[in-house]
Specification:
By secondary structure, the chain is an alpha/beta fold. The chain folds into 2 domains: about 5-10 and about 20-165, Leucine Dehydrogenase, chain A, domain 1 (Rossmann fold, 3-Layer(aba) Sandwich), CATH 3.40.50; about 185-340, NAD(P)-binding Rossmann-like Domain (Rossmann fold). It has 15 helices and 12 strands. The strands form 2 sheets. The protein has a 7-stranded mixed beta sheet with strand order 9-8-7-6-10-11-12. A 5-stranded mixed beta sheet has the order 1-2-4-3-5. Strand 6, helix 7 (about 215-230) and strand 7 form a beta-alpha-beta unit. Helix 1 (about 5-15) packs parallel to helix 3 (about 75-95), helix 1 packs across helix 14 (about 400-420) and helix 6 packs across helix 13 (about 370-395). The chain is globular. The N and C termini lie far apart (about 45 Å). The structure holds nicotinamide-adenine-dinucleotide. The site of nicotinamide-adenine-dinucleotide (NAD) has 24 residues, from helix 7 and strand 7.
Length: about 425
């Protein structure tokens, strides 16, 4: 099933049991607006290449839309809309005054030179400058975009507007108004969610083997923090494949090595860190099917499907990526008692600290790292409590509980803007 149809089907299924009116569910069936734009970019050899770009503002009942920009060859209109719908639910689950949005460019960024990447990023912001804005739609980084790219985009927006507007985009370099702690925020938030879960079910870090798919921004920080807390990281991977060691890896050395060589494959393993530890090379598919206590997909969506769900042996899955488990595989996992800590809660640390960045920009008052981390912890534990309570009292899987919390908040906002219910009796 197409990723957007799958996302819609999940909202419809969970919404029906959440006590949300059909009128509210109707409002969530399509995005508020999607802008598609051609980005002509001058390449270093003098030629011009065209890249197709999207920005979707899905629903803004709770506030301006918020969501990352992805650079990837597989970006599509449907993927951007699904990601924007998930952002809508996520911001509501963790109680942010935001709706959901998302953007993307169909491009393989690894093929571009740094200058071509800068021209592409500036072209994106030129195309979207009337669609985004500090009180309408606030972008951020996602897969294969980072602080430097956000900095170029902020600069382009300010050049167009002829004024400073650091609050138009988050995940910026610190020097341009970025927040301390934003780089680690998604991984730290996920770590805090896993910690809350471990407390509830009595999971012992030393007895918990963890497999992490995707050692990028989100995956690296969650793996690092889990390891520091005593968990055993037995497998990691990137787009080119993975490595496995029953003994467990030192995440920091692996990551530093990957930064130097750009691939875990180079760590496979002459004269490098993993010579220190017995390991074997595995594929990304094998990583998903390992016998571990905790599986952490932290790369792309759609990796656990009806095709492989029967072979998943992990006792729990923490969705650090957006949408790694497709809706069609939900039922099979809950029937087998596999606990899924859903993306809309588990990876919300990123948008929470993006919200803090936006608040700091609007106040013109930067926070300390301690303040950022403390407030992130408060928000995550509050959101986890609310979701866990619904999970227990309404006897539904954790994903359904999170969606129920989010959908009810969105419903309240939509109804306050005015629906048939609101006007009943007039
Ligand atoms: P990133 O670009 O920093 O890292 C992506 C990682 O995934 C890289 O290590 C890459 O090698 C790996 N990868 C790519 N294709 C793969 C494949 N087919 N199999 C295995 N690994 C593959 O991106 P990121 O920001 O860490 O985002 C990862 C996921 O987390 C995405 O789903 C994203 O939407 C989600 N997420 C990110 C943030 C954030 O703040 N960065 C916030 C919330 C959710």
């Amino acid at each position: 099933m197409d990723v957007f149809d799958d996302a819609l089907a999940r909202v419809a299924r969970i919404g029906a049991g959440a006590g949300v009116t059909p009128e509210v569910l109707d409002a969530l069936r399509q995005p508020k607006a999607v802008l598609a734009a051609d980005l002509p970019v001058r390449m270093d050899d003098g030629s011009t290449e065209h890249f197709l770009a999207y920005r979707c503002r899905y629903n803004d009942a709770l506030g301006p839309t918020k969501g990352g920009i992805r650079y990837h060859p597989d970006v599509s209109r449907g993927e951007v809309m699904a990601l924007a719908l998930w952002m809508t639910i996520k911001c509501a689950v963790v109680g942010l005054p935001y709706g959901g949005g998302k953007g993307g460019v169909i491009v393989d960024p690894k093929r571009l030179s740094p200058r071509e990447l800068e021209r592409l990023s500036r072209a994106y912001m030129r195309a979207m400058a009337d669609f985004v804005g500090p009180t309408t739609d606030i972008p951020a980084p996602d897969v294969y975009t980072n602080a430097r790219i956000m900095g170029w985009m902020a600069d382009e927006y300010e050049t167009i507007r002829r004024e400073k507007a650091p609050d138009v985009i988050t995940g910026k370099p610190i020097a341009l108004g970025g927040s301390l702690g934003r780089d680690e925020a998604t991984g730290r938030g996920a770590f805090l969610v896993i910690r809350e879960y471990a407390k509830r079910v009595g999971l012992e870090p030393a007895e918990t083997r963890v497999a992490v798919q995707g050692l990028g921004n989100a995956g690296y920080h969650v793996a690092r923090l889990l390891q520091q807390a005593g968990y055993r990281i037995v497998a990691v991977s990137d787009s080119r494949g993975g490595i496995y060691s029953e003994e467990g890896f030192d995440v920091e050395s692996l990551y530093q090595h990957k930064q130097q060589t750009r691939s875990l494959q180079a760590v496979y393993c002459e004269g490098s860190v993993c010579e220190l530890v017995e390991h074997k090379a595995i594929s990304n598919e094998e990583l998903l099917e390992l016998d571990v206590e905790l599986l952490v997909p932290a790369a792309l969506e759609g990796v656990v499907t009806p095709g492989n769900v029967g072979r998943i042996r992990a006792a729990a899955i923490a969705e650090v990526a957006n949408g790694p488990v497709v809706g069609e595989a939900d039922a099979a996992l809950s029937e087998r008692g596999v606990v899924v800590l859903p993306d809309v809660l588990t990876n919300a640390g990123g948008v929470i600290v993006s919200y803090f960045e936006w608040v700091q920009n609007r106040q013109g008052y930067p926070w300390t790292l301690e303040r950022v981390r403390g407030r992130l912890e408060d928000r995550i534990s509050g959101a986890f409590d609310a979701v866990w309570k619904v999970h227990q009292t309404e006897d539904v899987p954790v994903r359904d509980a999170a969606y129920r919390v989010g959908l009810r908040r969105i419903a309240e906002a939509i109804e306050s803007h005015g629906t048939r219910e609101y006007f009943a009796g007039d």
